[in-house]
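ENTRY TYPE: paired fold submission
RECORD: A
CONTENT: sequence, then structure tokens
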Amino acid sequence: MLLHYFKIAIRNLSRQRLFTGINIFGLALSMSVCLIVLMRIKDDFSYDRFHPDADHTYRIITEVSNKEGNTFRLASSPLPLAPDLKANYPFIENTVRLYANGGKASNGKKELYINAAFTEPSFFEVFGFRLESGDPHSALSAPNSIILTKRTAANFFGSINPIGQTLSMGKLGNYQVTGVLRDPPGKSHIDFEAYASMSTVAGLEKNGGLPAALDHWENPMVGYTYVVLRKNTHSGQLSRALKQVAERLMKKFNVTAKQVPGFDIQSLSKISPGEELGNSIGRGGNIGKTMAEIAIAFVILLSACFNYTNLSIARSLSRAKEVGIRKVNGARRSQLFGQFITESVFIALLSLGLAYVFLVIMRDYAPFSEELIPSDVPLDRSLAGLFLLFSLFTGLLAGALPAWALSGFRPVQVLKNLSTLKLFGGSAFRKGLIIAQFTLSLVIIIFTMTFKKQFSYMVNADYGFNKDNLLTIPLQGADYRLLSDKIAHISGVALVSASSDNLGGSASGTTSVKAMLTGTPIRMNFYDADSGFITNMQLKLLAGNTFHSGATTGTETEVIINENARRILQIPTTAEAIGKTILLEDSLPLVITGVLQDFHFQSFESPITPLLLRNRSQAFSLLNVRTVSSVNTATFVPALVKAWKGINPFQPFKYSWFREEFYARHSAVGTSSFLSYLAAMTVTLACMGLLGMVVYTTETRKKEIGIRKVMGAGVAAILSLLTRNFLKLIVIAGLIALPIGLICGQLFLHIFAARVEMGFGILAGSFIGMLALALCTISFQIYRVAITNPVESLRTE
């Protein structure tokens, strides 16, 4: 029977090539987005699935309140919490802490930034990680021991056995490599590149390498606490224990409940996708975003399924007599329903093939692939099975309603007079869906145009420094003085400076600043820069000078601030700021030598905030090389490579043009391209739905049109009659969508401290463009009906 249904489906679809093509293309467009969402969902739910006893393992999260009474939930917790729980509650089988503290590491020949954390020997038991080499029982026991991932070990030591080798991590000291982690069997939200022994931390706190945190409950931002419960222990016991800990802290520090952190638990298996928490680690998904993606994909899929329904209704007039004859010959409604559902599923399977082609193109060639399509989700059998199930679901969703309607035709009605045939109580329902489709399309178009305008402005705006003809060279452990001197003598180089990071992104760090001993500490962003940085970046000094000496490797003595910092520090004028002393972290006095005019050193999402330029050569990570505008890159880059090899022959030469890197960081080209794809897709689906309604309407009004032409109506009058009703739907959609799009655009723009105005042009242009597309969609079909000879539609009367 099923084979028979497929044969009939193939014959019917081959006879109606236009409808079949429209249905397949429309479903494939929407399914391609749904396939991306399925890949992202599969990726989100693949985290933390290999950890042993995940259902009995919990991460402790912290609830803190600010002075305004707002509560924040953090993925981190105070470091003393784990020992306290282990000592006082016997139902806890094991605990482990992670203390994130990455930075630069060097093996003497190569310097790289690594994402590292301190942890304990129980790390292996709790999380199930295995060592490729080394002893898991002792690898993290001794102070100053460290284990590396295979990739990190290869980056530092190549094919050399890393066990016993030494890594230097600046103020965090030197570490002996005691193990190499085996690649985990799955993904985990715990994905540091190196793990150092927690027993190192106490010594670092004593010598000032790390701030005091091991015994300090007031800092919930540094540690991550995981607890394994014994068998047959309910999670409620752990919750009650955490409540008791909070009560003990209140008594110990003699404070109110709002002044001590509260604690909650989160199952290891529900971290990804899970609740969005502050201070999170890893790349796991957020359950809110996952549900939002599912909702968006479902709305788009429903839009495509509606088009299938609409086009099926339009074809119903040609299928009605077929249904009537089959019923007269004894076919039951269930058999006819099965036949139409089979056709729908068959079209969905064909659409899946085309959607997969779209997916591959988007994954391999589209500019938004890296941002939105997970690159590490293989197209394996499990994913193929998921796609196939989704295709069957799509076929059932799209075909159920038309199959139920078409199989319900009464033979007497359809064989006697098709003109009286009504489906779904007339056209009001379908008109409403057309309005909804075009409303959604116009809102997406308006939002996309606003998004593009804002990010175009962010890329091309004046940030207060010069982005042109600037080359960035990562130092990778090279001596910046020697390298600067060599590069400065290369033809085409105008200026060379060193800094800790490039402007225009995130600052290098933050520090506590006070104007005097009794002042209130203020957190301020900072960069480290040499004496040539201000001139090279073409920043404007309002008072004072750049650093008076070369970058110091010892104690800092000088600092440069921006105007915003001067105002925050309550220094009346720029001139009065010069020579004043400020304190960093309550202990480091620095003399202000210059005041900079405010400039955007961060993204336009943030307002201009207080900024310090510090002067520590050990913090420099890159060179800023300003070239002349006429430099010949074909000869210039090889000259840079030669200079690099003379200073640091063990490291490959790396460079990037600042403007290109700036554009990649601020243009959001991936998200912009995907929004454009969504806008084009929703408009296409809406136009297909409109086309289906036009076909249905013109088919049911053929005789009316024939009579009007016989009575003297011209082609222009017929065109006006038919077009007017459809344009009303577009205008109604516009009246609904324009205020919604305006609100959405304004809400989006208010994310940015510096933003564009939406303007009338975006709203008017979006609406006129959509109206023109709708006219193009319906004009040919209406014109074809309007010029039809009335004899053809009236000859059976």
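RECORD: B
CONTENT: sequence, then structure tokens
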Amino acid sequence: MNDTVKTRTIFLANKFGIGRVVGLILLALFVTLRVWDPGPLEVLRLKTFDFYQVIKPRAQKQVPVAIIDIDEESLNAIGQWPWPRTTLAQLVNQVSTLGGAVIGFDVIFAESDRLSPGALAAHYPSLDPVTQRRIAKLPSNDLIFSHAIKRFRTVVGLSGYHRALEHASRTPIPAPPLGTLGGDPKPMLLGYPGAVRNIQEIESVAAGHGVITIKPESDGIVRRVPAILNVQGTILPNLTIEMLRVATGGGPLVVKRDELGLTSIVVGGVEIPTDEHGQFWIHFAPHDRARYLSAKDVLNGSVDPALIANHLLVVGTSAVGLHDIKATPIDPVMPGVEIHAQVLETILSQSYLSRPAYAVGAEIVLAIAVGLLIITILPIFRAWVVLVFGATVAVTLAEVSWGFYSNKGLLIDVAYPMGSSFVIYCAMVFVNYLRAERQRRQIRLAFSQYVSPTMVAQLTQHPENLVLGGMSRETTVLFSDVRGFTAISELYKDDPQGLTTLMNRFLTPLSNAIIERMGTIDKYMGDSIMAFWNAPLDDTSHALHACDASLEMHRRLSDLNVVLEKEAESQNRRFIPLHAGIGINTGRCVVGNLGSDLRFDYSVLGDSVNLASRLEGQSKTYGVPIVIGSSTANLIQHKFALIELDFIRVKGKLEPEVVHTILGGEDVLKERDYQQLAVGMSELFTLYRNQQWEKAQQVLEECRKIGNGYKLDETFELYDQRIRAFLTTPPPEDWDGVFVATTK
């Protein structure tokens, strides 16, 4: 019986597949995680919605909203904050005179004005009693401010507080008339047990009272504001909703809810969508200074009246020192007062964002559907087919989500269904990979008796690469060879192991310089190195990297010579410095597995490779460490300090080549001596090829003086000898200026 059960279990596992089992387990975990919806997952979802707003923020429309900004200029002109409330009374009066619709303060006046006459008189006890009584009889600044508020439609702000506060002899918080549809909204609202309120003189005369509390999400970004809240058991709107209510005649608010929570708030006949907790999603527009009016300009009457008349005006601050800065999806440093203005603009332009109550259920169903689809088809089709199919589904879902946002303002998250299905895909592919790896181990055990482990690894990983042939592509090839290797070998004729150690110490730093700059080392040939760039990996800057590597090779070789000299001195033996010649050329080559049916290597082959080898040999002719071909020079001429060496026909080639040497990088390129030398050498070659030998001789001497520090002595001497020879025996009149090299 046990054997029968075991057989059936194995049969079902083989038929259904371990990959599918893993996929179903992961899908169940992802669905559970989405139902739980921990904070980090919510932040990821919100980041998706942020991305939408960054790509397509709310379009700016002309709506009657402006900010009266207590900005840095206003603080400089009027004085530090808080200002005397007589100044704020003047501000309200100015708005009233200019025909503003309503003014709302993103400020709380929680204490009496310390600059009122009575407070000032008490602050200076040295005043004589008569003067103190006269000053004390003057009307308080709060009274003057309250009179201004009473005469004009003014909404003052208050803030929710995390604990109850004692307010002696205070009446309940004034609340607007309220109607409800669908049930009591209080259980669903964000609540605060306490409140920071305005003083009685101001609170009692204001036309409206709105909560200015802005609570960021858990990642510190403001995306939603509570349109309506439960503060100390009283339902209150936020500042902007109250401003709209006052501006539209001061009628009642209507709160709508269903079994899941709040759905909307109706203000002045306009229905404003909210989430289930009464929060309003802000559809942000880019920051625009045009919505700001400096408070000093309003006070001194220099503001354009058209920017005030019939406008909803929010008073707040953008001054850095007053610390009212918030982070939003499209701006990490937005003044808090602008968030209130953005809410008003969103409502007045009816560019709402909303996340419908069915969104969560739809997203969970979508995650299940896509996950099951991946689990079903992945074992049937190849992984890349499923990946392409999944990518198509992902793009389609992303387009649907974007369409909901762009056209209807609906926030539907498809990132979680796509992310969870991708993880399921990766997990199933990994399980399949483990099974395939087990099969490859079996192949290795079977074939390791017949071929080398290296070839077995290549066979199991990339058998398609084990064929002869290659592809044509542009590469930069470098050849490097030690100068005077014979003399160095003689020093170690009784110590061949020491010579091997020396060559290892020579080849290691030079090889590292090549590899660190994306080069591929083709082969070592005794004391020589062959390397190339732009294969097997693409390298669009292959010529730059090769030339940079050549300079670094000589820098590291210089460092090595310093160490070797000290070692030779300590061992009391002769020291011969190591010098290397380098040839570099760029051109099209065949790159791939080259060789025979018995053995082949990944290498490069072509005429440009042969030329690079010949150029390395010509470094001895001109006495320079690096010689590069014209194709390479054209690709790097603005990045390296180049000097033309000759127009030469190397041995074995019919076509001549303009060759250069590299004196250094961009630092040398900017040196004045180099720039003068480059001009002088250009003039020298023009005279030389036009057979103007006397003038060429003069220019050559000038170049010697300028280029004294660039180690071109052998090059200058070479041309001095040529010019002297041509003065005695001129070349034929049809001479093309080409020097024919007779050695490699």
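NOTES ON RECORD B: The first helix runs from residue 2 to 16. The chain has four domains: 2-57+356-437, 65-348, 467-577+586-600, 637-744.
STATUS: closed
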